[in-house]
Fold each of these.
Amino acid sequence: MQPLTPSLTKSLTQSRTQSLTQSLTQPGSLLRLATAGSVDDGKSTLVGRLLHDAKQVFTDQLDAVERVSRERGLEGADLALLTDGLRAEREQGITIDVAYRYFATSRRRFILADTPGHVQYTRNMVTGASTAQLAVVLVDARHGVVEQTRRHAAVAALLGVPHVVLAVNKMDLVGYAEDVFAPIADEFVSYSRALGIPEVTAILLSALLGDNVVEPSQHIDWHPGPTLLEHLETVDIDGEPASSAARMPVQYVLRPQSPDFRDYRGYAGQVTAGVFAPGDEVLVLPSGRRTSIAAIDRLGEQDLEAAGAGQSVTLRLTDDVDVARGDIIAATERAPRVTREVSATVCHLADQPLRTGDRVLLRHGTATVKALVDSIDSVLDLRTLRREPGPQTLQANDIGRVRLRTASPLPLDDYAEHRRTGSFLLIDESDGTTLTAGMVGEPLAGAVH
Ligand SMILES: Nc1nc2c(ncn2[C@@H]2O[C@H](COP(=O)(O)OP(=O)(O)OP(=O)(O)O)[C@@H](O)[C@H]2O)c(=O)[nH]1
């Protein structure tokens, strides 16, 4: 978010906002997706193929890809180079972990979280899929569902990703045989249903040859399903329940600093859920002070009629209450609970294990507090979907239940209701490494036993 400094605020115009429904623009027109797959399943090739066949590759990029492919002695263009090019950028430190690719067709716009699959695959998937509406989980048709596939499905379920596509890739290597595809699809679909994923679709493809990615395959006469792109363009994301209780973690406090701004005091951040409108009663948390919204501004516009999830705005309040960066401004109904006891389902990301008794930092929204790992209650067995009680530690990629105690109170939501204000990260105090991603409550309730 661009910080709203007083000098920027000065340039706010008086124009009124478009109606909220308009500004949140045609629902269903934007799909956020993430990919996940084991090493060599063909994720880079698939993303490259998707962008290429959807005509999203600029000619100069394609020329470069063809040239490098020729230099490497390959006959055709190696489309993995399109995304590997991005990876080189990442290695130079331009982007960490996840690069976002934007593309569009005539039917929908897409934001694709492109995550490197080799190392720390769960960490990358958690980062990429945490805001995704759809996850594409790749398998190699020759290997079918493997442990990592189950883990990807479990992470998608844990993160509350509502749509999952199983992409059975490399079908060219198994003769496009239905009796290879069908059992893989059945196994994955029933596993994902057991995890509580609302919608699962299996699609077969050959990313290398471009079969069924954007163009229907010429090699398959038995498969009536859509191509991957067609599915991405038509998957129904309109009806997804929007959390109605409003939330905004405060990112910046704008105080009057110059004589010009004597009267300006606002709290800037991104609305993570629901809708705020002037006149609404709100709570400032964790203090619990009750006040109401005097006005809503954003860069270039003042006195908006409302602000909804995803918008970065500045809220002005009717009372001169004490609000700090890290606080959450929330609707008074169904407010987050303020607590120092955190019970959560976590996915451990770092190579160093998480242990009972560890002292860590907990980052929740814009707040960071000290925390103690009180207990690690169970770890999930991905084969049986049973919780195995009493592990003393969580290893990299483990999904488990933990209890934490924080040094100061935090306003927490259940992840199942609020993805943003119901999630947190645990961070190593000494070097700032991300250790664990946490989801407050039991987002896998009903799925695991
Ligand atoms: N035969 C065949 N080979 C494929 C297909 N898709 C990918 N490959 C090959 O599989 C190998 C691995 O592909 P990548 O796209 O690099 O796979 P990846 O390791 O999942 O990607 P990253 O983890 O993101 O690097 C490459 O040699 C590809 O050419 C396919 O549909 N058919």
Amino acid sequence: MGNPANTIPTVDLSVFLRSDGDEAAKQVAKEIISRACGEYGFFQVVSHGIPLELMSRAMDLCKTFFGLPDEEKLKSRTRAGSPVPAGYGKQPDQSADKNEYLLMLPPNNCNNVLPNNPPGFRAALEDIFTHFSKTGEVIESIINDYLGLPPNFLKEYNNDRSWDWMNVKHYFPATETENVGISSHKDGNAITFVFQDEVGGLEVLWNGQWIPIVPSKGTLVVNVGDVIQVLTNEKLKSALHRVTRPKGRSRYSISFFYNLQGDKLVEPFPHFTTQIGEPPKYKGFLYKDYQALRIKNKINPPYKEIGIDYFAI
Ligand SMILES: O=C(O)CCC(=O)C(=O)O
Ligand SMILES: [Fe+2]
């Protein structure tokens, strides 16, 4: 496949957002997504329904927020006892990852600690969160259909949006000796969306090489996470990816994690096991247990996320 840069396929989602969307065009888009998921675990979407003005305003406000003095940012630091690191934080010094972040749960969640400064930031975050959540439902339904699951099967299984989160990050410029923004990992959730600024640095492992996902205005990067890998008994795989930091400039991104409600049992669906005579590749587990394990190991030694192999049979 020619030049490895910019080979992650891009799909126009507008056909799925209109009630009169052309069925043949939907089919073409589904096939592109299905091939991209099989080959890379990643694809990109445009015309996804999130207003471009909101995306660029949210990104500008993120840059302003992270440029504020620590004292101001720390007003939004994670509250003691919060079950997830909602609010502002910096990766621990011992971590290979070099970024500071602001993590939010759905608007109105009591664990949110959202900044009042800069003005309009909080409203923009809440607005974009709500849009991401809808885009998540659209992608989930496309995945449902091309997997051949009964209509709305994934939607009914994953019917509670209260555990979704969004993470806004500022990656510091690389130094002479290191450039890790986020070390190579797979996402633990169901579906991830990333809106990266123009700087670049997100890379996916494909056939043993790291391929850059070249930023493009208004484009969202989408990838499936460990939950989809387990539910489909590896028919779809969660891909390894990482962020490298360029020298001399900061990088910003907004990632949305379409998760599961914590009490959901995650185990391979019968459609991909008993119904086709395949043994399950994973033991069942509660989503909240996997999430807690990942968070615990990320913010304490070994400062790395635990992978889904933990539950492999
Ligand atoms: O910042 C990015 O481009 C991606 C971040 C990422 O992979 C993650 O937060 O899991
Ligand atoms: Fe990730």
